[in-house]
Design goal:
141 residues; mainly alpha
């Protein structure tokens, strides 16, 4: 992986992860001051917008990694490190689709379940990246 690719991926993970974490804290852990409002914090809509706007950076970085690393590794006979990489790759697909679904769904129950799924997948992805992906990304930065 080239240095700029590693930096782009790391920036995408950090920006998307932090904005998602800030939004999740505001949505799920804060109680708003207005009892008639569903917002946990006044900046909650802005945190969501930030998360939606920075997520394409992560998707672009993941696409570069897929093209330059995942696709190449899948063609090789070598099996070292394949399970961890495939686990992260398999996690990305439902994470991305659930994020897009949240913007399109109109039913309250469907949005709620999809939101929890997206939050859980995002947390697992961020933890896996911190534990595994950051080590190989930092070697390239």
């Amino acid at each position: 992986m080239r240095r700029w690719e590693a930096r782009l991926l790391a920036a995408g993970v950090v920006l998307t992860g932090l904005s998602g974490l800030v939004y999740a804290v505001m949505k799920y852990l804060m109680a708003g001051s207005d009892p008639d409002s569903r917002l946990g914090h006044a900046w909650q809509p802005d945190a969501l917008k930030a998360h939606i706007l920075v997520a394409p950076i992560l998707l672009f970085g993941l696409g570069i990694v897929f093209r330059g690393h995942v696709a190449v590794q899948l063609q090789r006979e070598e099996r070292d490190g394949r399970r961890a990489g495939l686990a992260i790759a398999a996690l990305v697909v439902p994470l991305v689709f659930s994020g897009y679904l949240l913007q399109a769904l109109t039913g309250e129950v469907a949005r709620q379940w999809t939101g929890w799924l997206h939050t859980a997948l995002g947390l697992v992805f961020a933890l896996l990246y911190l534990l595994w992906g950051l080590t190989w990304t930092m070697n390239d930065i």
